[in-house]
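Hi R.,

As promised on Friday, here is the backbone we talked about, encoded as structure tokens. Could you run it through your design pipeline when you get a chance and send me back a sequence?
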């Protein structure tokens, strides 16, 4: 079992395990991306990538420490 550093790493790992179910090929970890129309820089927690058609999905993680 890997040793996790952040909850985003846990999300990336789990999404890679279920990538086929989501219709993606793989998941990349936290990164900065630039908006195409706004040129705004965004930090995203993960990105699911579909290599065949260039599709992607953005992943935002939330950690709730209280019930």
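Update: got your reply. Pasting your designed sequence below so it's all in one thread:
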């Amino acid at each position: 079992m890997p040793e996790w550093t952040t909850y985003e790493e846990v999300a990336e790992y789990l999404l890679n395990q279920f990538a086929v179910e989501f219709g993606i090929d793989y998941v990349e970890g936290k990164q900065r991306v630039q908006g195409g129309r706004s040129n705004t820089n965004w930090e995203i927690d993960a990105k699911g990538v579909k290599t065949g058609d260039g599709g992607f999905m953005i992943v935002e993680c939330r950690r709730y420490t209280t019930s």
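One thing I noticed while checking it: Residues 7-17 form the longest helix (11 residues).

Thanks again,
M.
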